[in-house]
Amino acid sequence: MKAKRIILMLIASGVVFGGVFGFVAFRNHMIKQYFATLAKPVVAVTTAQAEAVNWQGVVAAVGTLQAQNGVDISASLSGLIKEISFQSGQEVRRGQLLVRLDAEVELSDLRSAQADQDLARITYDRSKALLRSDTVSQSAVDKAEAEFKVKAAKTAGLQAQIAKKSVFAPFDGALGMRKVDLGQYIQPGQTIVNLQDLSQMLCDFSVSQKDLGLIAVGQNVRMTTDAWPDMTFIGEIAALEPQVEAKTGMLAVQARFPNAERRLRPGMFAKIDINRPETEPVITVPAAAITYALHGDAVFVVREEAGADGKAILRAERAVVELGERQGGRVVVRKGIRAGDVVVTSGQVKLENGSLVQIAAEDPLKLPGKTVLR
Predict the structure, then answer these.
(1) Does 173 map to a domain?
(2) Could you tell me which residues are beta bridge partners of residue 44?
(3) What pLDDT, on a 0 to 100 scale, did the predictor assign at position 367?
(4) Which terminus of the chain faces fewer neighbouring Cβ atoms within 10 Å, N or C?
(5) So what's the pLDDT on residue 59?
(6) What are the start-end ranges of the E strands in 179-219?
(7) 179 falls within a domain
(8) What CATH number should be reported for the domain holding residue 251?
């Protein structure tokens, strides 16, 4: 009786567990069947065509801007600041007085030296007159002349020292922030204010020695900056360093850019592009079409194929590409696609290989044109 009860319990348990496992298997089968028959979503994307063009490559570099003339204004002598004749940020002209130091002691010494000089001149003139009547010797006249020249030199030295007590602007430009105060005692070489001539800017950058044959003084260059991303500045190469850096194989180059609107400032970083003289046939796509990844850069190419009902459908296929130079919002594709291929330019984040797509009427990523300054 007891064994019979155990057998019945085992049979009942088998039926229950079998039902549970059967239900789970049936549910999983139905889920798989549902997703297998579920229509794949159609992703709205924008597209552009891969174009075959004659590409003019560029020599690219990163440089640093500096003013045509820029200097920290300082005095060559120590002294107490008696007068400040400028304001921070002021535009000044060449020769304009900036700071005057106290020169009372030097002025007193100058008056004494001028009196000695006048006395020496009188003595010298008297000696020359007496020489004609043979009252004094030639040696006495020579001594009087030498004494007069010594006194004159001392006077000139004091005048030069007093002149250095006044600090003037060495060129036209814009002043920075004032570093000194009225009544402050300054030492020689101590910065008073920074002065920058912003009418023209110089950009220092380096190029590889293999590009030496592609650049020359007077050649046009293009420059863009982070401060003005929608503007392209046009300048020209002003100088080439005669010596290539032996350790790096790089050549220092300096370009000059007009800066009438004062948009460029010293210390800014800039991207430099110099056109190569030759062109080559290449395939290009918009930069927005590129999907960057650690395992390789890729684009999604839109292919047309026949659907199950015979109607044409569009499907996105992922193509790994080898990229070249980037310029003007387009990128050279060396390998991976052909001219005429339609590539996705927006909506890639929703795509996977084989996704169905629908092409939107307009491209929301279309970039505005850049302003070019010469």
Answers:
(1) no
(2) 358
(3) 41
(4) N
(5) 86
(6) 185-186, 191-208
(7) no
(8) 2.40.30.170
